[in-house]
Design brief:
Order of helices and strands: HHHHHHH
Shape: elongated
Number of strands: 0
Number of helices: 7
Oligomer: single chain
Radius of gyration: 22 Å
Mean pLDDT: 84
Largest sheet: none
Number of domains: 2
Distance between the termini: 69 Å
Structural class: mainly alpha
Helix content: 55-70%
Length: 138
């Protein structure tokens, strides 16, 4: 059995402690803390929304950032608008662009690359690699 007096004191401290601390933190720090909390909750798991894109993988074993390349490729190549919007929220346009540039659009069609690189760049990458147009004509 717990001591009622100790429980009351604990609740008093607990109730005002978190709120008063949060009110003293700058907004940028509060955002950082909330992002860390969200990351800890998700532990890098992928949402059910993208499960259909990984038909030949053990979906529950895929984790970010370990499977980032696979996730990017599958969502960009096969994903619906809703799934690509999730990718944008998760990695941002800059993160997706960085991935597309680093991989020079390997596995993507010109149309799939266009939101992140110019048409000219996409065509240049595809013409430099003999097998790249296979993706364009599939």
């Amino acid at each position: 059995m717990k001591n009622a007096h100790a429980v009351a004191l604990g609740r008093l401290g607990g109730k005002k402690g978190g709120l008063s601390r949060a009110s003293r933190l700058p907004p940028a720090r509060r955002r950082e803390i909330s992002k860390q909390a969200a990351a800890a909750r998700w532990e890098g798991r992928l949402p059910e929304l993208v499960r259909p894109l990984f038909w030949s993988y053990h979906f529950d074993e895929l984790r970010l950032p370990d499977s980032e390349d696979l996730v990017m490729l599958h969502v960009l190549a096969y994903g619906s608008t809703e799934q690509r919007n999730w990718l944008r929220q998760r990695f941002g346009d800059a993160g997706i662009r960085r991935w597309v540039v680093d991989h020079q659009g390997k596995g993507l069609t010109e149309k799939q690359m266009l939101p992140w690189v110019s048409r000219r760049t996409a065509k240049r990458w595809q013409s430099a690699k003999p097998g790249a147009l296979i993706w364009e004509k599939r």
